[in-house]
């Protein structure tokens, strides 16, 4: 397992080149040791920084090849040429030389696997080193299928937005102005670490300290995403997959799924149905309410962001409760059916299953 790097770089030596200033940590006193191997150096541009190079620098330092590497912030091409890796500056994308810029004319690299968003420097680092980082966190071999699943899921839920924001790609295909301003996303919060124009101290030292804080913020949230997917997302996906595979054991229609353990299931169900080409689609999901110990029958939405159900519970049942509902349905133990028909309840599993089967017929 790896931990979030929160320690700032060691005191820096400053080197002056015409109109350029860059800094990197001083070497430790152990440089005279026969076993000493100098740390590798990673370059990115100085001046105002963005989320993509802050996160990219954090991620690449988690790899075996660049573990704990020094960060050199400069735009000087002669200095960049001497470095072991360069991110977000230099005008070159060449992974064989560990050059990961995306600003040059003709650059069109995407993550692949069905994703078409142009990559930022963070996306490039993730594309080439993401499986290694995830495998370390899971303590698995890079070839393990769970590593690949998380590699794709984390790009979709975390990395792609950073690529899109940095490349100025709108989230929606519209010319209309947004209805509200959102300055709370990660890229925006990283940007706020840049020195304020009113600050009298605009030194490279203070700028580099701000960049370190930006790296820590972006890296912490990246690792939190990796760990969430490893500890929560992946187990939930496995549960939904097992329950989806057993659907015809519940009802011959194959349209009712029972969760034997409650977990976040909605997005997994949509993705697995598409991945496995499930036909017919699931109409109702049954699960036990942990607090009341009664059972719920929930109609599956038409899409992840839709309030409309594929097959809502019958209109005759909606808004009724308890004995009145049991009388209407002919099913004992009914608790309620929501006015919209998207969810209902029964005291027993058998009653909830009967409600779902009745919903399919009516």
Automatic annotation (TrEMBL):
<dbReference type="GO" id="GO:0005634">
    <property type="term" value="C:nucleus"/>
</dbReference>
<comment type="similarity">
    <text>Belongs to the MYG1 family.</text>
</comment>
<dbReference type="InterPro" id="IPR003226">
    <property type="entry name" value="MYG1_exonuclease"/>
</dbReference>
<dbReference type="Pfam" id="PF03690">
    <property type="entry name" value="MYG1_exonuc"/>
</dbReference>
<protein>
    <recommendedName>
        <fullName>Metal-dependent protein hydrolase</fullName>
    </recommendedName>
</protein>
<dbReference type="GO" id="GO:0005737">
    <property type="term" value="C:cytoplasm"/>
</dbReference>
